[in-house]
Amino acid sequence: METVDLRYPIGKFQAKESYSKEEVAAFIHRIESLPLKLNIAVSTLNDKQLDTPYRDGGWTLRQVIHHMADSHSNAYIRIKWTITESTPMIKAYDEKLWAETPDASLPIFLSLNVLQALHAKMIAMAKVIPHDDLSKKFIHPESKKEVRIDQMLGLYAWHGEHHLAHITSLKERKGWH
């Protein structure tokens, strides 16, 4: 029997050097569809279930949802910096510490609403970025790596589905319907 790594239920993200228009359009569609899929996945969960870690030593489902809003907010800002500045150095943040701030225990509808609005704005922007501008880059201050906009779109298409799978796979393992 194959053992699934509960940290990466859909596997790890593997960035390519660049992406075609069709691949970027698919990323945009995946990002656009995430809020609805997430809302459906959590619609039947109660507070006890939301406060259950998706794996031993992992975040609770509530923390995962708040993390998604935090992370995708940072992604949106990073994309905006990249299209408005010349190879900006972005700001890093400690996602583990952010997952422990007091707002990570608030009702999830707050972060679900943030994700809905944020994804609408991100998609409206991403759909009109000229394909040539998708090669614009930012620099990550810790790794010093340059990251392209098309790579960010791929990463966040994966990131949303990655955390959605944390939720849906826990529901499946626990028999929560």
Structural class given helices, strands, pairing? Answer: mainly alpha
Beta-strand percentage? under 5%
- What characterizes the major β-sheet? 2 strands, antiparallel
Euclidean distance between termini CA atoms: 25 Å
- Overall mean pLDDT stands at 96
Characterise this structure:
- This protein has 177 residues and is mostly helical.
- It has a single domain (21-174), classed as Four Helix Bundle (Hemerythrin (Met), subunit A).
- It is 56% helix and 3% strand.
- It contains six helices and two strands; from the N terminus they run αααααββα.
- The chain has helices at residues 21-42, 47-50, 61-84, 95-98, 108-126, 149-174; strands at residues 137-139, 146-148.
- The protein has a two-stranded antiparallel sheet with strand order 1-2.
- Helix 1 packs parallel to helix 6 (149-174), helix 3 runs parallel beside helix 5 and helix 3 (61-84) runs antiparallel to helix 6 (149-174).
- The longest helix has 26 residues, at 149-174.
- The two termini are 25 Å apart.
- The mean pLDDT is 96.
